[in-house]
Write a structure and sequence with these properties.
The chain has about 260 residues and is an alpha/beta fold. It contains ten helices and seven strands. A seven-stranded mixed sheet has the order 1-7-6-2-5-3-4, with helices on both faces. Helix 1 runs antiparallel to helix 3 and helix 2 runs antiparallel to helix 3. The longest helix has 24 residues. It is globular, with a radius of gyration of 18 Å.
């Protein structure tokens, strides 16, 4: 419970004290959008997410970050925890907009930072919202901003199962329409940090692996049709393999 309290206090203080920085990055973005995006990403990672990771006591092993291309990409990952975002955002190479559920839009100050980071808010009950998200994501990628989507559509709350939830096929149209590579992103053990024993937080070790980028420009219609199954199979296999391969690491407590 102490970790949860520390994280909560820090998050509150960060959101309040970062208001001047929020205004400055917004102002920079008015004159130079790229500079505003880069500065927002740097501030949120260094003064937001990294301290939260520290107070939560999470240690991360990252595999394959060098596989991420320098060009804009579509990150596709499995989703079991709010910490998936906190930990993977620190690994992106360029400004990246994450797709989040609509409810986060109503979180004061946090929503402003997310807007500055090019995040999108999806209403899962509204089909039109899904279409708007796809079009906006394509537009972002064409402007040089990567996009990260968790195509399971919601957090997988079954911590006893290694099976992923079905991937939504429509998500992958972002990559095929924008012509950008897909980077599979497999996250293991984040659910044990918080969700498995909410509201307590526990010091845990997490494994994140970035797979080989998948080009989408020259895919046939048949390959595009089954793209979601292909990517899900890659992430599913990586999840099972890494859970076994790094079992000792995952089982260890951190020293934080």
């Amino acid at each position: 419970m102490i970790r949860f309290i520390l994280v909560s206090i820090y998050l509150f203080l960060y959101l309040i004290l970062s208001m001047p920085a929020m205004f400055i990055t917004w102002l920079i973005g008015k004159f130079n959008k790229r500079a505003g995006d880069v500065s927002s990403l740097w501030i949120v990672n260094h003064f937001g997410f990294r301290p939260i990771q520290f107070f939560a006591g999470v240690r991360v092993k990252v595999i394959g970050r060098d596989r991420i291309p320098d060009e804009p990409v579509l990150y596709i990952g499995n989703h079991r925890s709010f910490f998936d975002v906190i930990l993977t955002y620190q690994q992106v190479k360029n400004p990246t907009g994450y797709v989040s559920k609509k409810e986060i839009l109503y979180a004061p100050l946090l929503n402003v930072w997310m807007i500055l980071l090019n995040c999108q808010f999806l209403d899962r009950k509204n089909p039109r919202s899904g279409m708007d998200m796809l079009l906006k994501s394509i537009e972002l990628i064409k402007k040089g901003i990567s996009v990260c989507i968790f195509p399971e559509g919601t957090r997988n709350k079954n911590s006893d199962s290694d099976e992923l939830l079905p991937f939504h096929a429509g998500t992958f149209k972002v990559a095929t329409k924008a012509g950008c590579p897909i980077v599979p992103m497999t996250v293991v053990n984040t659910n044990t940090v918080w969700e498995d024993h909410f509201p307590s937080m526990k010091s845990q070790n997490v494994v994140i692996e970035y797979g080989e980028p998948i080009p989408t420009k020259d895919l046939s219609k048949e390959e595009q049709k089954h793209l979601h199954e292909t990517v899900q199979a890659i992430i599913q296999q990586t999840y099972i393999e890494n859970k076994a391969k790094y079992a000792d690491f995952i089982g260890k407590k951190t020293n934080k």
